[in-house]
């Protein structure tokens, strides 16, 4: 048995398929025909782009969101200009120019001490390798057509590799390089596929192994497992199966604690097709519709009608259940090429979300009108991200009123009493929650940003990842301050950040009186089960203990010891 780091739970058995990148020797040659080399490079680039577009067409949900961002990177002309210059000016052959040109950009990204940029560097390397493979006319393993019960073993699975996987025939993934928040890990968890990483010299370890069993929860891997080892894993698998069957009992019921405190349990979605998962897990609504993916999935600004039909589809399918639509939230770690957003030193603190929308009123009004029109077909709410001042909220409300008046003039129906709320993700807003609550209809706490802004730690930066803590006492106090501020003014307070689906954190949120939890659909049933086993009085006592603690570790230890 060998042990790695488990980052997607589950048990898998299967035959090993080692995916190795070919070791190429790229020679520097002086091209006789520059135009021919430029054409070879452009054709290879177009073929890579076409492959990605074909993958996107077959994908949905999380995979589509990831591949959309990946395609935008491939289409960025700044990515290829260095390669083209090396062919034109130095007369290098296309293979060598691609290697040199892309590596120069990769090194530039790697110098920036930022985890997001490091991820982009890995994606750029992947694009480079795919272009070179096209130039060499290499045939790679077809990851979209795999035998049943295949366990993928690779030094690293890139974003594009993972998106091509024939998931129904993948029993597990094992890599040398990987991370909890990598695109591969996200996709594996979405498809309930066990994933283990951090296996040193991985291809050597598995070179003579045909069959393995693996436990993605604890990182254990059994090479050609014995009967006893196989039975041990089968028992774990049986328990997981029983747990999943047990969760079926929690479909189509209200989410109420043992002592009668009722909360709403909602799902987050990115594109309309995600609605199927929401309906399957019987969530009580949609707490976050991330509309930016409508923009990222288009080569130009989506029209009012295109947006209207997307929002209308979701509103109708939810049949009167709440659908909270977040207005455009780009900038920071989300770029849209046709918006021509400026490059910023610190984009997370820059020109993004409502700041961008209030500076582009006509673009903003197109989205608001589309949401308003869709509200005639369901229980739609408008949610504004990145609000940091009362002035921004008031200006937004003015624009919404202008849009209502424009629809009134044309006799276009919409929900007259549509609710308008804000995301609370900036400490200044949390501190002034009571004041904001007087001027809007609801709150939704975005913990991902609230944490990073409170502790001054960019959440993707690996070097200081230990400082990014949801257990920080200041974060706890800001969450409580937000919920209390909402309730004092009689509005509801929800949460749509990752903390909302964290089983260790949920008792604390119940104790604070959080009204609505919104999370990925695959967490809804287990969260409903947990909440129905909680006693709110006990949770309130936990809050009183935790609120006076002074360190993240102290808070974490106490919450881990809490019993239902």
What's this entry about, in short?
By secondary structure, the chain is α/β, with parallel strands linked by helices. The protein has 23 helices and 17 strands.
Give the helices and strands, then pairings.
Elements: E1 2-3, E2 5-8, E3 11-19, H1 34-58, H2 61-75, H3 81-90, H4 94-111, H5 115-135, E4 150-154, H6 159-164, E5 170-175, H7 183-190, E6 195-197, H8 202-205, E7 211-215, E8 220-223, H9 227-247, E9 255-256, E10 262-269, H10 275-280, E11 286-290, H11 292-296, H12 304-317, E12 322-326, H13 353-358, H14 361-374, E13 379-384, H15 390-409, E14 419-424, H16 427-431, H17 433-437, E15 442-445, H18 447-455, H19 473-488, E16 492-495, H20 506-512, E17 516-519, H21 524-532, H22 536-546, H23 552-561
Helix pairs in contact: 1-2, 1-5, 3-4, 4-5, 12-14, 14-15, 20-22
Report on this model:
The chain has 564 residues and is an alpha/beta fold. Helix content is 47%, strand content 15%. It is built from 23 helices and 17 strands. An eight-stranded mixed beta sheet has the order 1-8-7-3-4-5-6-2. It has an eight-stranded parallel barrel with strand order 10-11-12-13-14-15-16-17, surrounded by five helices. Strand 13, helix 15 and strand 14 form a beta-alpha-beta unit. Helix 1 packs antiparallel against helix 2.
Classified by CATH, the class of the largest domain is Alpha Beta
Fill in the CATH topology of the largest domain: TIM Barrel
* Rg (CA only): 25 Å
Q: What is the molecular shape?
A: globular
Number of helices: 23
Instruction: Give the count of structural domains.
Output: 2
- Which class of secondary structure composition applies to the elements? alpha/beta
Quaternary state of this entry equals: single chain
Span of the ends, CA to CA: 35 Å
Helix content: 40-55%
Mean pLDDT: 88
Give the spatial strand order of the biggest sheet: 1-8-7-3-4-5-6-2
Number of strands: 17
- Beta-strand content bin: 5-15%
């Amino acid at each position: 048995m060998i042990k790695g780091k488990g980052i997607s739970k589950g048990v898998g058995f299967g035959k090993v398929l080692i995916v190795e990148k070919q070791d190429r020797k790229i020679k520097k040659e002086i091209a006789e025909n520059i135009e021919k080399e430029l054409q070879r490079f452009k054709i290879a680039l177009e073929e890579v782009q076409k492959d990605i577009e074909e993958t996107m067409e077959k994908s949905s949900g999380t995979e589509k969101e990831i591949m959309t961002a990946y395609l935008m990177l491939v289409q960025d002309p700044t990515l290829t200009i260095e390669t083209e210059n090396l062919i034109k000016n130095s007369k290098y052959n296309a293979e060598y120019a691609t290697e040199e040109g892309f590596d120069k950009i990769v090194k530039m990204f790697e110098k920036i001490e930022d985890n997001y940029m490091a991820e982009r560097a890995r994606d750029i390397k992947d694009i480079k390798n795919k272009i070179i493979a096209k130039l060499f006319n290499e045939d790679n393993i077809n990851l979209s057509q795999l035998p049943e019960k295949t366990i993928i073993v690779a030094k690293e699975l890139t974003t594009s590799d993972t998106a091509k996987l024939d998931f129904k025939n993948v029993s597990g993934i094992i890599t040398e390089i990987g991370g909890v928040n990598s695109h591969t890990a996200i996709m594996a968890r979405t498809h309930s596929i066990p994933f283990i990483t951090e296996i040193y010299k991985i291809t050597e370890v598995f070179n003579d192994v045909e069959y393995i069993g693996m436990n993605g929860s604890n990182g254990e891997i059994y090479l050609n497992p014995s009967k006893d080892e196989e039975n041990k894993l089968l028992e774990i698998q049986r328990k997981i199966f029983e747990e999943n069957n047990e969760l079926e009992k929690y479909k189509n019921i209200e989410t109420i604690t043992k002592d009668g405190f009722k909360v709403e349990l909602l799902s987050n979605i990115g594109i309309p097709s995600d609605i199927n998962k929401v309906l399957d897990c019987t969530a009580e609504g949609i707490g976050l519709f991330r509309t930016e993916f409508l923009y990222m999935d288009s080569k130009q600004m989506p029209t009012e009608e295109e947006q209207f039909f997307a929002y209308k589809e979701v509103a109708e399918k939810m049949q009167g259940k709440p659908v909270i639509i977040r207005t455009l939230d780009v900038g920071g770690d989300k770029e849209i090429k046709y918006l021509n957003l400026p490059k910023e030193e610190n984009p997370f603190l820059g020109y993004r979300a409502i700041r961008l929308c209030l500076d582009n009123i006509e673009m903003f009004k197109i989205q608001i009108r589309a949401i308003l029109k869709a509200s005639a077909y369901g229980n739609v709410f408008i949610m504004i991200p990145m609000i940091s001042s009362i002035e921004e909220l008031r200006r937004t409300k003015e624009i919404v009123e202008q849009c209502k008046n424009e629809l009134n003039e044309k006799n276009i129906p919409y929900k007259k009493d549509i609710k308008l709320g804000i995301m609370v993700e900036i400490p200044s807003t949390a501190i002034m929650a009571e004041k904001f609550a007087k001027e809007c209809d609801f709150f939704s706490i975005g913990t991902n940003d609230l944490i990073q802004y409170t502790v001054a730690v960019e959440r993707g930066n690996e070097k200081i990842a230990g400082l990014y803590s949801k257990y920080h006492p200041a974060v706890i106090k800001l969450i409580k301050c937000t919920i209390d501020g909402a309730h004092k003014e009689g509005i509801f307070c929800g949460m749509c950040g990752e903390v909302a689906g964290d089983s260790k954190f949920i008792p604390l949120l119940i104790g604070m009186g959080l009204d609505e939890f919104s999370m990925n659909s695959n967490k809804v049933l287990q969260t409903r089960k947990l909440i129905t086993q909680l006693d709110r009085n006990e949770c309130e006592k936990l809050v009183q203990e935790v609120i006076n603690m002074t360190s993240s570790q102290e808070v974490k230890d106490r919450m881990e010891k809490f019993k239902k």
